[in-house]
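Readers of this paper often ask what the protein records in our data store actually look like. Nothing more is needed to write down the fold, since each code stands for a local backbone conformation. Below, we set out a record of this kind in full and without editing:
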Amino acid sequence: MADDKQSWQSIKYKDLVTLGAGWMLLAAILPLPYWYYEVLRWVVFISAIYIARTAFKLNKDYRWLLVVIATIIAFYFNPVEPIHADKFTWIYIDLVTAFLAFKANSLLE
């Protein structure tokens, strides 16, 4: 029982945010109900804001690049005023954004 608690404590919030958004984006290439994509917009939007905020606090040379990329992602996945595109375009956007979410997970140390 103590091992279970310790393994859950080792999960960092940044892992949950970046990897969770990344896996949801990969799943988005499948034909899913519309509500999934609405939830995905919120998850990716909040994740992008978190990544931008966390990157801004970093003392690394690439922090501004992360902030700009995360801000652009937040703009595209804005759930309040959504951008509409066909499924084929969103598949590419989702794949690139998933890659960036996984990459951000390794850069936000």
Observations:
- The CA atoms of residues 26 and 34 lie 16 Å apart.
- The mean pLDDT is 89.
